[in-house]
Design goal:
The structure holds two protein chains of two kinds. By secondary structure, chain A is α+β, with helices and mostly antiparallel strands. Chain A has two helices and five strands. In chain A, helix 1 runs parallel beside helix 2. The chains are: A alpha+beta, B alpha/beta.
Chain lengths: 104, 561
């Protein structure tokens, strides 16, 4: 297992404070993403625990791309990963943030 | 049973996540999770295996409404390690059930989707399942309806199959599955001739909702639809079986009757035929409503009164038994120097011994005997007889069993139900003032120790006793973890190591008795019965650091045990 941490810059208005949301499940080729309010305005902190070692660079690229497309400033993302592909990771991240923001 | 008009918005139970399932069964928007993912109550054991944990350890627990009435509910996530029960997962269930005992909600709903004990946390998982069994039965004895809902993709197997049958009622989706030893386990241990796990029709016929409903293991059959499962839950909450002598005698009679009618069957389709179901070969194909209507007579026939109260015995002379010899004989002589009338019936021990303060009923296993449907029924029958004829008589449970019997026939007949029934009779005896002390004197493995030994007020062991869950090579195969790694871990971690030391550390076994054994026996029988303190003991001994605090946090409040 490998633990990774990223601190992403994200433009735009800070995300609102909402109750935490979790989507997905830790399974082979799948992951769970927990979205919570963060404590750094203009930034998004991401922590990852993954069963697949040596993919730090790819995680970095997927997350940079994600941060550029989604308003995640002021959020904290935590991931438990069972070896998902980058495409699955990107979909889960988007789903998680959407569900977080859709809350009343 | 079906909800017309639901058709267009049908939501599959099988395809839903644990969270979606619980939201779909409870009143819309009413569910409030306790100890949710943001609290990060995660498994402390998985990192050592290089596995990521889940934020909620694979189970969602909390409170909500069902038809406007407050209920507590739990939902297992089959996608995470097969919904398996580890230390934290089990403790969340235990905490929820203890909260129910205190708050007395309208019901507890357990949405089960689990392969049973989490092998990656083997020993801690086995003890956790045992604690869940005791907590379910304790909540029921306190008058809280506990209903199991089985509709996930994984099914409900292993220890959780026993837990389901510790509940007061079960609703199953048509394509839910319920059993003890799953198809892969039977194929792996008994060979493909016994059960071909790849034969989907055979697997569904054996474990599926229709068969379980027909033989009376499930009380309500639903379509694969959350609305339908919700309707089944609402129906059953008002109709749960109480945990009293009359209800357990009725349950016992039903199981006796099942063996009478179907005991010779090895395939579910044969059971349907001998029960008198019309057109049994067509049954797997018909819709739920038509199925329920068409098998009503067969179901009633299986559930009717047996022709004799005694369960059929395995072989001639087995009902009498022989005086135990060898190691078991010496053990009994040491436990009861004033004498005993304990008999060994093909590995089942039944009888009584003369203790220092009067007669002590003796029940259990010897010689590593595996527990099958007949054995479980015989032990439950003996315990019910003690409760009926000898109020308050203390019970000594002797454990030397290499686990549940793994066979296709035992699964067809619903072995998990027989073991759940046995566990319920232990709880009944406890509630009626019988002191129950268990002594492990040999092997103590999974289904051989859960329904009787681990249900006792206190569990002790003699030197050389050997509790375990599964052999390390088999565990390596199931978990796909390297054997060398498991062997290394088993030398340092009480969670993996087979044997007495590990189970002492986890708090599952209280102490080791040394000869003369009648002395610790007398002392144990003289102590008053108390609550299940195994998790607390595991915390004090350092073997299980999270079970007690997690259960306490979910149970809520410092007043909770």
């Amino acid at each position: 297992m490998e633990r990774l941490a990223f601190d992403l810059e994200s433009a735009g208005a800070p995300a609102p404070q909402r109750p935490p949301v979790v989507v997905g499940a830790v399974a082979s080729g799948n992951l769970e993403v927990l979205v919570e309010p963060g404590d750094a305005p203009g930034r998004c902190h991401v922590e990852i625990a993954t069963s697949a070692r040596g993919f730090g660079e790819i995680w970095g690229a997927v997350l940079q791309d994600f941060a550029a497309r989604h308003p995640i400033a002021g959020l904290a993302l935590s991931v438990n990963d069972g070896g998902a592909t980058p495409a699955v990771v990107a979909l889960r991240l988007a789903q998680a943030v959407e569900e977080y923001l859709a809350q009343p | 049973m079906t909800a017309p008009g639901h058709g267009s918005t049908r939501a599959s139970c099988r395809e839903s996540s644990a969270r979606r399932r619980i939201a779909g069964v409870l009143d819309p928007g009413s569910f409030r999770e306790t100890l949710g993912p943001a609290e990060r109550a995660q498994s402390p054991h998985l990192a050592a295996l290089g596995l990521p944990a889940a934020f909620d350890d694979g189970v969602v627990v909390g409170a909500g409404l069902l038809g406007g009435a407050p209920v507590l509910a739990a939902s297992q996530e089959g996608a995470f390690l097969g919904g398996s029960v580890g230390e934290v997962h089990g403790a969340k269930l235990v905490g929820l059930l203890r909260r129910a005992e205190r708050e007395r909600p309208g019901a507890v709903l357990l949405l089960l989707d689990s392969g049973g004990v989490r092998l990656q946390e083997a020993n801690a998982g086995l003890v956790a399942v045992s604690e869940v069994m005791r907590a379910v039965l304790s909540a029921r004895a306190a008058g809280v309806p506990v209903v199991a809902l089985v509709g996930g993709a994984w099914g409900c197997f292993g220890g959780m199959g026993i837990v389901a049958r510790c509940c007061g009622a079960i609703a199953m989706c048509e394509d839910g599955r319920l059993g003890l030893s799953g198809p892969e386990v039977i194929e792996a241990t008994q060979g493909v001739e016994e059960l071909d796990a790849a034969d989907r029709a055979l697997v569904w016929r054996t474990y599926g909702g229709k068969h379980r409903y027909l033989i009376g293991e499930a009380d309500r059959l639903a379509q694969d639809d959350l609305g339908d499962l919700r309707a089944a839950a609402q129906h059953l909450v008002a109709r749960v079986r109480p945990l009293d002598l009359a209800a357990l005698e009725a349950e016992h009679a039903m199981l006796v009757r099942r063996l009478e009618v179907a005991g010779a069957c090895r395939d579910a389709a044969e059971v349907w035929r001998v029960a008198g179901a019309r057109d049994p070969d067509r049954l797997p194909l018909v819709e739920v409503d038509e199925f329920v209507a068409s098998i009503a007579d067969a179901r009633a026939r299986l559930g009717s009164a047996p022709s004799s109260a005694a369960p059929p015995r395995a072989g001639a002379g087995a009902e009498v038994g022989t005086p135990p010899t060898g190691r078991t004989g010496a053990l009994l002589a040491d436990l009861f120097p004033r004498g005993h009338e304990v008999r060994d019936r093909a590995g089942l021990l039944v009888g009584a011994g003369r203790g220092s303060s009067g007669e002590v009923a003796v029940l259990g296993s010897a010689g590593g005997a595996e527990l099958g449907v007949e054995g479980a029924l015989a032990l439950a029958g003996e315990l019910l007889r003690v409760v009926r004829d000898h109020p308050g008589r203390p019970v000594l449970v002797l454990v030397d069993s290499r686990g549940q019997r793994m066979s296709r026939r035992d699964e067809v007949l619903g072995l998990n139900g027989f073991l759940g029934h046995l566990a319920a009779t232990v709880e009944l005896a406890r509630r009626r003032g019988h002191r129950i002390v268990a002594l492990v004197h040999g092997d103590a493995v999974s289904g051989g120790v859960l329904p009787l030994g681990f249900m006792a007020d206190e569990v002790h062991a003699v030197e050389g006793a050997n509790p375990w869950v599964m052999s390390l090579p088999a565990m390596a195969r199931v978990t796909k973890l390297p054997l060398g790694r498991l062997e290394a871990l088993s030398r340092t971690s009480p969670v993996f190591a087979p044997g007495l030391e590990a189970f002492l550390g986890l708090g599952a076994i209280e102490s080791v008795w040394r000869p003369p054994l009648h002395e610790p026996l007398a002392a144990a029988l003289a102590r008053p019965a108390g609550p299940d303190l195994r998790a607390q003991r595991g915390l004090e001994r350092g073997g299980r650091l999270l079970a007690a605090p997690v259960a306490l946090r979910v149970a809520g409040g410092a007043n909770a045990r």
